[in-house]
Amino acid sequence: MLRAISAQTMDHRGPDFAEVGRAALAGMKSIFKTDQHVFIYPSSGTGAWEAALVNVLSEGDKVLMYETGHFATLWKKMAAKLGVDAEFIEGDWRRGGPRPDRSAAACGYRTGDQGGLRCSQRNLDRLCVAHRAGASGDRRGRPSGTADG
Description:
Strand order of the largest sheet: 2-1-5
Protein name: Aminotransferase class V domain-containing protein
Distance between the termini: 29 Å
Strand content: 5-15%
Low-confidence stretches: 111-117, 134-138, 144-149
Shape: extended
Cofactor: pyridoxal 5'-phosphate
InterPro entries: PyrdxlP-dep_Trfase (IPR015424), PyrdxlP-dep_Trfase_major (IPR015421)
Keywords: Pyridoxal phosphate
Largest sheet: 3 strands, parallel
Radius of gyration: 20 Å
Number of strands: 5
């Protein structure tokens, strides 16, 4: 086991990683029982943020975001670059934002005619909250006695 975890990390731009990717795609075809193309969206967390923003929001949309730390501020900057109008509520970096269900209720979110969420009090299109990792020490919502609690 020590030998395996001490092995050099595979270069994600190299031919060995490309082969792993091809094998993964072939295996996914079997899992999904298809002969059609299967796509993997490889990215860092930043790529996931961008995918979330561009697939859910349009330029000019108004969103409410909570400052929960460095990643949340970077997400807001990315939203601004994409033309999203983000209202940013300052927070304490040592704690996560409010629970999304409470945030939505406080903002006045309700299900709209099209099934999406609308904020009647702030005229917002969406609510964006970057979660906090367990490594941050934020333990809200975790039952005591669990591995994380």
